[in-house]
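Form 12-C: Joint structure prediction
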Amino acid sequence: MFDLERWQEIFDTIRKNKLRTFLTGLSVASGIFILVILLGFGQGMQNGIAKEFEQDAATSVWVWPGVTTIEYKGMNPGRPIQLRNENYEFAAVLLEDQIENKSPRLFVRNSFVNYGNESLAYNVQGVSHQFQFIENEFISQGRFLNQQDEDTKAKVAIISNKINREVFKELESPVGEFLDISGISFKIVGVYGDIGGEREEDRIYIPISTAQQVFNGADKLNNLSYTLPPAEDFEAAVAQSIKFKNDLKSYLQKAHTVAPDDTSAIQIYNPMEEAKRFYSLMGGIKFFFWFVGVCTIIAGIVGVSNIMLIVVKERTREIGIRKALGAKPWSIVGMILHEAIFITAIAGFSGLILSMGLLEIVGPHVEVDYILNPSVNFNVALTTVFVLIFAGAIAGFFPAWRAAKIHVIEALRDE
Amino acid sequence: MIQIKDLHKSYKMGKNSLHVLKGINFNVEEGELVAIMGSSGSGKSTLLNILGMLDELDEGSYTLDGVPIKNLNETKAAQYRNKFLGFVFQSFNLINYKSAAENVALPLYYQKVPRKERQEKALKYLAQVGLKEWANHLPSELSGGQKQRVAIARAMAAEPKVLLADEPTGALDSTTSYEVMDLIQKINDQGNTILIVTHEPDIADMCKRIVHLKDGVIIEDKKIEQVRAAKYV
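Section 2 - Result
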């Protein structure tokens, strides 16, 4: 391997057979190139999907009522379901050990929001203090709602970074300012941001108790939301969230006299379940990418061994001459293998560098839904190259061995 | 230099066995220039292959420079070939992508001679065959006679004990043939042992001894008065 003479001999051969070398190299390099790009996009899809699920806490569960569609216990279908405080409170007690954070939600409809003389168009929602963790909000200034706000039905409001920028840009801080919501003054106590981005920052949060009392909500709720405690692993988290969903659903169905198979009266959205579906789809896609990639590599290896066979055939006479001049069998095997490994290695690494470079340069600029920053694990790619080199060596060995066994007389026979 | 006793060789052709050499006995002394003659099928090429360790004998014994040549594995045979023998072929058998000098240096590569020394030696032997100026030319740029001279230089470069030439003039016109024979005679004059297989009587006459093969046996083995090729050149 480190025999300088052998290297010189090989470089001579390569220099004088440029096309053959180039074609061999091309098949190997393209194999690696395609594999790395495929793996990169597999990773990109995974990143993209993970990003989609980042907007809300991953273990969150969302409940909203609808209209019954099935007759049940003498009740006609078409009956709208109204969630109430007692549902929220009872569920909280019933499923206490399964819940990490919980919040009811009331949409304050037909509200007018004013700041000074300015009329603003944002949603007002009554939520609990734990809603911060369910929606994945972070606090930029001041604070979020707290238990005391709820208990005292405080007239406080939390605005978003977006609202802050759009309305309060002249102020150093909006905290302490007063908003007029349908004629009632609310003091701004905090500014939040949403990980999901600006489209989730159109809301003004006020305490749920205040919302119900001030805006004639009575004990009505529009929405329930929860997060579940972290689980050991993904599978456990999925199992836990499905169990919680079923428990909650059966309680709410009983409380509102809804048929157990009525899917539209009580709807529960469980991102975990969706995530599982996406992740298994992801797994399938990744497997497919690997499969295609490996097939490409196999095609590359077959290409190499094919070319090696032709090389041996083409060089039969030369090998015969070399043997007549005193080349030992292993020196023939070594020469052909050495060349094969050298070409495969160079081509493999060029394919690797080229594809990694492409991913590195183009990857961060890919802006397609569900594909984010395609990249590939360098070690995986490197291993692939070595596997390919090894396979190339194996593929080259048999033709080389055959070459070493060439009968000199037959090789030199005049055609 | 070469002792052959009771050599037999047969080839299997399907069910039939073809007995090619049927008991050959002959010795070659150092410095001889021997022509092996015979019509095609007489077994002269088979004899040369066995002498060249490219084929194995069935029966009998073969001793080369005191070394018994018997049951060699491929590696050993390769070693002996490299050390003892130089080959010249009818169709030259130069490696077509290597220059004349590289071709001549090739047996030295297998002797593990360092590159620099290889190149020097190659040039020296090319100079001996009068092709020093052609050292960097590819075989395709040389004439037939030049190619054969390169092949002879290559065979000599390894400094073998015996030079084996299989129809060295078979692919050349008569003028060129005589030039090549002139070269071979000069190499022989320096004391090298040379065996030439040929079926051309005028070439055989330029050797010092003629061995006549027919149907696998030697029918005639005589020393002759050498005709110098130089006077035809």
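Section 3 - Comments
The longest strand of chain B covers residues 16-28. Chain B has seven helices and ten strands.
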